Amino acid sequence: MARRRAAGFTYVALLLGVALLGSSLAWLGQSWQLASQREAERQLLFAGRQIRQALLSYQRSGPAFGQLPYRLDELLDDSRGVSVRRHLRRIYPDPVGDGQPWALITDEAGRVLGVHSRSRRQPLKRAGFASGEEEFEAAGSYADWRFAVRHAAMREDEAGAPPSRDQRHRYRPGAHPPTAAVAPDDDRDIGKP
């Protein structure tokens, strides 16, 4: 009889162990899923910011200031100027889009203003976004995280006129400000002490 009680105790202990193991694995699976989603969010923010930065670089360079590309591929190989310029090393895939390509944000002419994910999943991140991304805090899905440039990135002066050629020059990445030229009626005599 003592042997039957011991066998029953072992059976109950084994069932309890299996139940604990199952609940631990379920908790571990949920934790892994949350960690995976947080990592995908970080990758989405990185990729979206890189594409937005490349669009800004494209917009501020080239012969036609303020012009945007018709396709994302144009960011990889911009031949509008004298030399080829690469604003983006590669088109990053949408990490939360389940293999779908980016949804493009375009203007009336079909030029790319930005991108956003096609995913309708609800984001975990609700605060702590970079400057200019405050609207992400109220997003209902990843599709609401829009990485775009302003349509008219050319700054206007106080009079409302678009910037002059010299003003545009200083907004190009890596450009040096124009130097002041000596006026022909300058009184200074350069050759005399």
Tell me the layout of helices and strands.
Elements: H1 2-60, E1 103-106, E2 112-116, E3 146-148, H2 165-170
Tags for this model:
elongated; three-stranded antiparallel sheet; mainly alpha; 3 strands; 34% helix; disordered C terminus; 193 residues; single chain
Low-confidence stretches: 153-193
The number of helices is 2
Using only C-alpha atoms, the radius of gyration works out to 29 Å
- The main sheet orders its strands as 1-2-3
The helix/strand series, from N terminus to C terminus, equals HEEEH
Briefly say what this structure is.
The protein has helices at residues 2-60, 165-170; strands at residues 103-106, 112-116, 146-148. It is mostly helical. It has a domain at 40-170.
